[in-house]
Design goal:
The protein has 181 residues and is mainly β. It is built from 2 helices and 8 strands. It is globular and about 75 Å long. The mean pLDDT is 83.
Length: 181
């Protein structure tokens, strides 16, 4: 099976662009910081250790954890997953995403603000034990922007490993209703 997921997010109304707003409501990469409490996490808001590697595929749906790739205006992403025709549930994946970035340069007391677009991408392999419920993803290749961030934070490839454990989808009452006598 080959799956494609596209996401574009923006706001219909924005604040004055001259105001500094650090809220990054859109993100290419999300971990256990689900703002609307839609998902169940082993440890909500975890930032270190095993539980911080749990994520849900939302917004940009990047599997690689990184701090960049957020925006208070818009994001766009495309994610693909391809199930390998082998006896175990292995998949290849690739994602690409775009976000706006603002650059400020001050010279001689004058500040010039410009906006451009930053691109991010990743590719790797995953094990989908139960699709969308129990998955493990290992990003093997990431864009230079993500790689630079990992080097600055002294993180390696093992820190990229993420897992989906969708506790909210394990409703035993639904499972019982789906049993056929």
């Amino acid at each position: 099976q080959f799956r494609v997921r596209a996401f574009v997010g923006t706001f219909l109304s924005t604040t004055d662009p001259g105001l500094s707003n650090s809220l990054q409501a859109w993100g290419l990469s999300w971990g256990p910081e689900d703002m609307l409490f839609d998902q169940a996490y082993l440890e909500r808001g975890a930032s270190h250790g095993f539980t911080a590697q749990q994520f849900s595929k939302q917004q940009g749906a990047f599997k690689t954890p990184f701090l960049q790739g957020g925006s208070d205006t818009w994001i766009a992403s495309l994610n693909t997953e391809f199930d390998l025709p082998v006896g175990i549930p292995l998949s290849l994946f690739a994602s690409g995403g775009f976000v706006p970035i603002t650059n400020s340069v001050t010279q001689g007391g004058t500040t010039t603000v410009t906006t451009s677009t930053a691109s991010y991408y990743e590719a790797g392999i995953g094990l989908q034990l139960i699709r969308d419920i129990m998955e493990v993803w290992v990003p093997l290749y990431v864009s230079d922007r993500i790689q630079d961030e990992e080097e600055a934070l002294d993180r390696g490839i093992a820190d990229r490993i993420r897992f989906v454990f969708a506790l909210e989808r394990l409703d035993p009452t639904k499972a019982l209703r789906n049993l056929k006598p």
